[in-house]
Amino acid sequence: MSYKIFVDGQEGTTGLQINEYLAQRDDVEVLRIDADKRKDPAERKRLINASDITFLCLPDDAAREAVALADNPATCIIDASTAHRVHPGWVYGLPELERQQRERIRTSKRIANPGCHATAFILALRPLVASGLLPAGTQVAAHSITGYSGGGKKMIESYRNAQRIDAPRPYALALTHKHLPEMRAHTGLDIAPIFVPIVGPFYKGLAVTAYLHPGQFARKATPAEVQKILADYYAGEAFIRVHPCDLEAATDGGFFNVEASNDSNRVDLFVFGNEERMLVVSRLDNLGKGASGAAVQSMNIHLGIDETKGLV
Ligand SMILES: NC(=O)C1=CN([C@@H]2O[C@H](COP(=O)(O)OP(=O)(O)OC[C@H]3O[C@@H](n4cnc5c(N)ncnc54)[C@H](OP(=O)(O)O)[C@@H]3O)[C@@H](O)[C@H]2O)C=CC1
Ligand SMILES: CC(=O)N[C@@H](CCC(=O)OP(=O)(O)O)C(=O)O
C-alpha cells in the first residue's frame, strides 16, 4: 500500500524536514507541487484533495486557507501551524498526552501538530497535574532555551546573514507567547504559565525548564518521587525518556546540554533540586519531536502503522 502525501509548504523549514523523513520510506508517494505553483490555491487544492495525508507547514493564515480548500472527506490534514491547536473539531497531535489520544489521532481527519515549546512544557507538567501533586490552580513559571531554526526561514536568515548575533535573546517578554493557550489547555492547569523563551545562536535543540515550588504541592514530595510520577506516566513510551535524578549523569560537569536530544524524535525529562526548590527540564529537537518528527509520528498513528516507523 502506498499512501499519497502532500506537503503544503514543502520549501519551508518544517516542510523540508518532513520531506527528509518521507524520502527514506517506501510506503508513501509524495505529491510534489511545481515550484512556480507553490502558492497557487487551485493547484494546492487539487493536491490536498488528491492526498491521503496533507501536512500544512505554513504560516497560520495560509494554513487556515488550506483547510478551507480541503473538501475530500478522506483526506487527513496534519497542521504544523498554531492555527488549530485549541480549536474545536481538531485533535492535538501529542500521542503521549493521555491513554485515549492515539485513538483520537487515528480516527480524526484534523490533527493539530503541537508547538515546540508547548510539547516540552506539557509533557513535563501534565503528569504532575494528573497525579494530583500539582494543584490545577498553580501558576507555573518556565523558560525555554531554543535554537534559531524554531523561528523558520526568516529567523534562520537573520542568524546567517546579519551582523553576528552571538548572545542569547529572551523574547515574548509581554508574556503572551502564542503557545500559552495550548500549554494551558493540554496540561490541565487552570492558569497559563509565566513563560519566557530565549533564542540562542545555535541551529536547533530546545529545553524548557519549569520551576516548581514544593510548598505549592498538594503533598510533600522529593525530586525522586516527582521523577517516579513522570516515569510511571510514560512507562512504555518509545519517545520519552525519564532520566534518574542524577545531576552528574545529566550534565557535562554541571552544565546542561540543550542540544543532546537533537536528530531524534525523543523527549528527555529530568527532575533537579531538593524538597524546597525543584526544576523539571524537558529537552527535545525543535525540528524533531518539536515539529516534523511529531507530525510523522501522528501520520503513522493515523495510518495504523508502527508509530516509530522512520523515526529514532
Ligand atoms: N520551525 C520550527 O521549529 C517549527 C515551526 N512550526 C510551524 O510550522 C509552520 C511552518 O513553519 P516553518 O517551516 O518554520 O516556516 P518557514 O517560514 O520556514 O516556511 C513556511 C513556508 O510556507 C510557504 N508559504 C507561505 N505562504 C504560503 C502560501 N500562501 N501558500 C503556500 N506556501 C506558503 C513559505 O514560502 P516562501 O519559501 O516563499 O517563504 C515557506 O516556504 C508555521 O506555522 C510554524 O509556526 C511548528 C513547530 C516548530
Ligand atoms: C525561536 C522561535 O521563534 N520559535 C518559535 C516557536 C516555534 C514553534 O514551535 O512553533 P509554532 O510556530 O508552530 O507555534 C516561537 O517561539 O515563536
From TrEMBL:
Gene3D superfamilies recorded: Dihydrodipicolinate Reductase, domain 2, NAD(P)-binding Rossmann-like Domain
Catalysed transformations (reactions): N-acetyl-L-glutamate 5-semialdehyde + phosphate + NADP(+) = N-acetyl-L-glutamyl 5-phosphate + NADPH + H(+)
Pathway named in the protein's UniProt entry: Amino-acid biosynthesis; L-arginine biosynthesis; N(2)-acetyl-L-ornithine from L-glutamate: step 3/4
Semialdehyde dehydrogenase NAD-binding domain sequence ranges: 4-105
Subcellular location: Cytoplasm
Single annotated GO MF: N-acetyl-gamma-glutamyl-phosphate reductase activity
Enzyme Commission number: 1.2.1.38
UniProt-annotated catalytic positions: C116
Protein name: N-acetyl-gamma-glutamyl-phosphate reductase
Organism (species): Dentiradicibacter hellwigii
